[in-house]
Automatic annotation (TrEMBL):
<dbReference type="GO" id="GO:0071269">
    <property type="term" value="P:L-homocysteine biosynthetic process"/>
</dbReference>
<feature type="binding site">
    <location>
        <begin position="151"/>
        <end position="153"/>
    </location>
    <ligand>
        <name>NAD(+)</name>
    </ligand>
</feature>
<dbReference type="InterPro" id="IPR042172">
    <property type="entry name" value="Adenosylhomocyst_ase-like_sf"/>
</dbReference>
<dbReference type="InterPro" id="IPR036291">
    <property type="entry name" value="NAD(P)-bd_dom_sf"/>
</dbReference>
<feature type="binding site">
    <location>
        <position position="348"/>
    </location>
    <ligand>
        <name>NAD(+)</name>
    </ligand>
</feature>
<dbReference type="InterPro" id="IPR015878">
    <property type="entry name" value="Ado_hCys_hydrolase_NAD-bd"/>
</dbReference>
<feature type="binding site">
    <location>
        <begin position="293"/>
        <end position="295"/>
    </location>
    <ligand>
        <name>NAD(+)</name>
    </ligand>
</feature>
<feature type="domain" description="S-adenosyl-L-homocysteine hydrolase NAD binding">
    <location>
        <begin position="185"/>
        <end position="347"/>
    </location>
</feature>
<dbReference type="GO" id="GO:0006730">
    <property type="term" value="P:one-carbon metabolic process"/>
</dbReference>
<feature type="binding site">
    <location>
        <position position="150"/>
    </location>
    <ligand>
        <name>substrate</name>
    </ligand>
</feature>
<keyword id="KW-0554">One-carbon metabolism</keyword>
<dbReference type="Pfam" id="PF00670">
    <property type="entry name" value="AdoHcyase_NAD"/>
</dbReference>
<feature type="binding site">
    <location>
        <begin position="216"/>
        <end position="221"/>
    </location>
    <ligand>
        <name>NAD(+)</name>
    </ligand>
</feature>
<comment type="function">
    <text>May play a key role in the regulation of the intracellular concentration of adenosylhomocysteine.</text>
</comment>
<feature type="binding site">
    <location>
        <position position="125"/>
    </location>
    <ligand>
        <name>substrate</name>
    </ligand>
</feature>
<protein>
    <recommendedName>
        <fullName>Adenosylhomocysteinase</fullName>
        <ecNumber>3.13.2.1</ecNumber>
    </recommendedName>
</protein>
<feature type="binding site">
    <location>
        <position position="180"/>
    </location>
    <ligand>
        <name>substrate</name>
    </ligand>
</feature>
Length: 419
């Protein structure tokens, strides 16, 4: 078995972490039990490019239980939990190519290693595998029955590929499932981003002005949690509907050029490029803290920050770099601008990833069962999968809901009855 990890001897700690996460992932556990019996993925070679965390490990175990021959690589250089990588290799016999802090060259070498597995189905967290296949490994396209995409950023990239005719394989946008973005993005990102910022800085958010760039589901979750911690929250947006929603949710809304003057803590959650730029860094307060919780660190123009600086003090705290600007002010960058919830914390709680990864597993089963029937485009997750996962999650939480009576079903199906 090929693999490239930090240290195989870290496995015992990783196994404990995986088992702890599994305790709070009852829906995925039920799917794993069924997969173990039915083997719906038998004969499939899978390559997955995901955040290598304890929660991801339980997804990979589920896919393996379903019969898949799976290889895992990291989707972010700073999100890997090295003890989890070690346990996946030693305890579960899964090839992993991921080392926390790996440089850019190693990151792409690991993606190449995952593709050398010659997958028939892939799973992405940011579309790096699919992108590499279309640019450098077109030989793999004929054998691929589909790919799953977990992130908003990845879906944006894939939709762009579909629009210009570049997409050559079917992709299921798992991120667009209600059981993913309504919960994982809002509650998972909301809580874990706060967690990452506080772990990195030990900052009291109460009374501070927190600037949230982007009011999609991730931005909404983070803004909600920051407000709950007592922060004054400012939202910056380009979308008028979302801006209006943020205002009606009780947040101040203004352009980043105005927010840059008043913010104490800045976090980007947009999926776009250079959301915080040179002109913003120049007018920030002395001691402003800047971080990103979007998928790629390009949301922050780190090159511009470096150009404005006379010096950089690395790791003034773990994962905190101090940039000394020419105007005698300093700006603190967290986690090298990468996903702060994974660079400085442990990512989303297992409870919320239970739904996302249950949907991932079932979407993979759907793609395999429909091999040859799906054309090269971006598909939404079938609604019946969403509903099934939601019902199971409710059951695991001990929550019951109402069902329609026959009379109500008839009324909703009829156009003849009015008031």
């Amino acid at each position: 078995m090929n693999y490239d990890i930090k240290d195989i001897n870290l496995a015992p700690g990783g196994k404990r972490r995986i088992e702890w996460a599994n305790n709070d992932m009852p829906v995925l556990s039920q799917i794993r039990a069924r997969f173990e019996k039915e083997k719906p993925l038998k004969g499939m070679k899978m390559s997955a490019c995901l955040h290598v965390t304890a929660e991801t490990a339980n997804l990979v175990r589920t896919l393996q239980a379903g019969g898949a021959d799976i290889v895992l690589c990291a989707s972010n250089p700073l999100s890997t939990q090295d003890d989890v990588s070690a346990s996946l290799v030693k305890d579960y016999g899964i090839s992993v190519f991921a080392i926390k802090g790996e440089d850019n060259k190693t990151y792409y070498k690991h993606i190449t290693s995952a593709l050398d597995h010659k997958p028939t189905v892939t799973m992405d967290d940011g579309a790096d595998l699919v992108s590499a296949i279309h640019k450098e490994r077109k030989d793999l396209i004929p054998q691929l029955c589909g790919s799953m995409e977990e992130t908003t950023t990845g879906v944006i990239r894939l939709k762009a590929m579909e629009k210009d005719g570049s997409l050559k394989i079917p992709v299921i946008a798992v991120n667009n499932a209600d059981t993913k973005h309504l919960f994982d993005n809002r509650y998972g990102t909301g809580q874990s981003t706060i967690d990452g910022i506080i772990r990195a800085t030990s900052l009291l958010l109460a009374g501070r002005t927190v600037v949230v760039a982007g009011y999609g589901w991730c931005g909404k979750g983070f803004a909600m949690r920051a407000k709950g911690m007592g922060a004054h929250v400012v939202v910056t947006e380009i979308n008028p509907i979302r801006s209006l929603e943020a205002a009606m949710d009780g947040f101040m809304v203004m352009p980043m050029l105005e927010a840059a003057r008043v913010g104490d803590v800045f976090c980007t959650l947009t999926g776009n490029l250079h959301v915080i730029r040179k002109e913003h860094f120049e007018i920030m307060k002395n001691g402003a803290i800047v971080c990103n919780s979007g998928h790629f660190n390009v949301e922050l123009d780190i090159g511009a920050l470096e150009a404005l600086s006379t010096s950089v003090n690395k790791d003034v705290r773990n994962g905190v770099d101090q940039y000394m600007l020419r105007n005698n002010k300093s700006i603190y960058l967290l986690g090298e601008g990468r996903l702060i919830n994974l660079a400085a914390a442990e990512g989303h709680p297992a409870c919320v990833m239970d739904m996302s990864f249950a949907t991932q597993a079932l979407a993979t089963e759907y793609a395999v069962k429909n091999k040859g029937k799906l054309v090269p485009k971006v598909y939404d997750v079938p609604k019946e999968i969403d509903q099934w996962v939601a019902n199971l999650k409710l059951k695991s939480m001990g929550i019951s809901i109402d069902t329609l009576t026959k009379e109500q079903e008839k009324y909703l199906a009829s156009w003849e009855e009015g008031t």
